Amino acid sequence: MKKFDPITLEIYRALYTSVAEEMGVALRRTAFSPNIKERRDYSCAVFDSSGRVIAQGDHMPVHLGSMPMAVAAALREVEIGPGDVVALNDPFAGGTHLPDVTLVMGVFGKTAGGRRQTAGNRKRAPAARILPPASCLFFVANRAHHADIGGATPGSMGLATDVYGEGVRIPPIHLARGGEICDDVMKLILANVRSNKERQADFEAQIGSLKTGAARLLEIVARRGAKEASHYAAHLISYSSRMMRHAINAIPDGSYQAADALDDDGIRESEIPIRVRITIRGDRALVDFSGSAPQVAGAINAVEAITVSAVSYCFRCLVGGDVPASAGLMQPIEVVAPKGTVVNANHPASVAGGNVETSQRIVDTVFKALAQAIPERIPAASQGTMNNLTIGGIDPRTGAEFSYYETVAGGMGARPSLDGMSATHTHMTNSLNTPAEALEYAYPLRVRRYRINKGSGGKGKHKGGDGSIREIEVLAAARMSLLSDRRKRAPYGLHGGEDGKRGRACIIRTDGSEEELTSKGSWQMEAGDSVRIETPGGGGFGKRH
Predict the structure, then answer these.
(1) What is the torsional sign of CA 420, 425, 430, 434?
(2) Which of the chain's ends, N or C, has fewer CB atoms near its CB within 10 Å?
(3) How many folded domains does the chain comprise?
(4) How does pLDDT run across 388-421, given as a tens digit for each residue?
(5) Separation between Cα atoms, residue 142 and residue 47, nearest integer Å
(6) In terms of DSSP H, where are the helices of 283-402?
């Protein structure tokens, strides 16, 4: 590659990252559902003209590591022209699980090679060259978790035994052509989801976010030229690769193995083991999940994109925050995820929980293996679940359907030199809670209790963070679903630290009785009933003196 100026490279890193961040701000401010505008359950990224990721916003790790596969599927199957928007959520074609809908748009420009002429440079700068109309400079993409995408249960996070029961599956298709929404496609999707006006508004917010990103990228091109912009995008990818190689090279050569397990799949009670062997040789890493459980009937199967995303997250944590979040990060890492297993399920497996639960367990397993190689850098296990709670029914205030979805924060694992943080979203989720005021305004629900689950963090030289307790009352008959884990096997401590406390959940009926809940399932609730979620604490680190 040609030489580059380090200062200019850093400017481009900040520019491209700021584009992804501004896309996220635009999406958050224009979305209708609390899950997107309050919890920020979305991600945005910028790609080069060949579909390689250049920059990502600091959004959801589980989205960002898997989004390149979705963009690759879109480019492989659909021809994208100016003003076109492609939508997809198919887990077996680059998606993750059905509620996460990805939109992709091309960025088409007119100038390249040299700067746009201004009054100050008219005599010195050559005239800008005109590109053919079909020339694509970049792609922009975002992914948002829609609070409902159809299926058997409100919130689309129930215990279906195949992907058909989980909701509407969207292969890579045009949602817009030439700047105009494809009405028939939108009608088909909206006819199969709950709260379809809210879904439509969120789709429109996603499209607006893409347009924001495209406008900012064209401003960069207008200022510096397409040739330089493309040149430095390639250097950012190369720089990320070098940084990752450096980080891997600092890990002692060798083979490191670990195993962990999910409680069950919601259908059978047996544990679902995940095994990994990490082989470090120089500046390259092989992460092999051979020996992990075969795919299961319940909804905790992960597709390959999720497994790659989890591995990407783990190794990115070793590099630091300043490295460009580009395609170069995964170049020195090979992931082996055997087909037909819980970490790379075949169609038509149900996958709703693979994105949210199995991804967390993959992270726990990878970090457990890395703790053998670099014990001074790896924390104990965090809560290891997202505690997915969905509630849906008819809102008596409006007579319309409602779909509430939330993940509930838990304890962070203790770190080698610090205690873990309490009641926070960790690892593959980077979302917020839904504020009680926003929740009660949007839904026929009332927050009865929300506090830290004191004493749930594992003890040790450094204490694991405590989980949280969230209790929500339903004000109308509703169907509630829970997709969670770490109810049987506790978050592990490291180097003598104690395990964190396991989670639990129950329904408190109007007569005061408590009904203990399994970690995965759906239940009918009547007006006045409450669901209480007690999330796990993080593991402790080191022996207490």
Answers:
(1) negative
(2) C
(3) 2
(4) 999 999 999 999 999 999 999 999 999 999 999 9
(5) 11
(6) 304-319, 359-373
